[in-house]
Amino acid sequence: MPSGEIELTSGDNNWTTIQAGKSQFKVVGLPSGDYPALPSIEREGLTPLAGAGLLELIRKTLFAAGDNDARYILNGLLVSLTTTEKKTTLLRLVGTDGHRLAVAEREVGTPNAKQPAQDIKAIIPKKAAQEMRRLLEEGGDEEPLIGFTKNLMIFRKSGLLLTSRLMEGNYPNYQQVVPKESGKRIVVNRGLLESALRRVSVLSKDKANAVKVSFAPGGMTLFSSNPDYGEATEELVARYEGEALNTGFNARYLLDALSVMDGESVSLQMDTALSPCLIQEAESPGFKCVVMPIKI
Q: Where are the domains of the chain?
């Protein structure tokens, strides 16, 4: 549109005229009464959150949610709000597509003795979580608020109100998938592992981005091969004292997990070559990622 003022005029039969300089557009409209009624939202009942904290939780879990997955419920994030013994609110987000799982949690808000106990669980669509992340990335001084009705999520920030229908269904029991903190654990520099995976996966075959990962005392080895292009091997110094272990992963799943972590080093833990791999970092005790291995 030309620079300057833009004039919008609504006329008969719901026609709208848009005038800007010497440009004019006439657009066919619909009766305003046909627009769906907006829900009445009360500020009471909404939980205040630290914007940076909520943004971090979304960033650390959104990558693991399904994308047009046939299992409809996996195309969303599980959100839970629980009152702790300290009368603060524990916010937990969970995302999974069946191949990887991400769980992130943290206490939000300030202790409030008058706060009623709550235990809310809801599944929000991935698209709604993406919009929340975009709004939070814009910043602002006002503390965002979140709340839930029977079938709606309400998110309020700086005068903007976002509502989304909740997804209906039962979310998988993710807690039984997360391994207990035992078994074979290897600690390695996050940045070096991420860079090595990107290089080695260049020669991985097919869409699985398969990379063989070997744990041995004092280090780990990454290996990939493709009959049409060749093979790649890279060794990394790591802290590991268990028995030798050979397994395989979709490199993209590991890279996605590493990309949302901020610590200098990460730990990978698994009991057997085909058991779930638990990925953690000391700097974020509330974050856990589980990646299922593949046969190579």
A: 47-174, 178-291
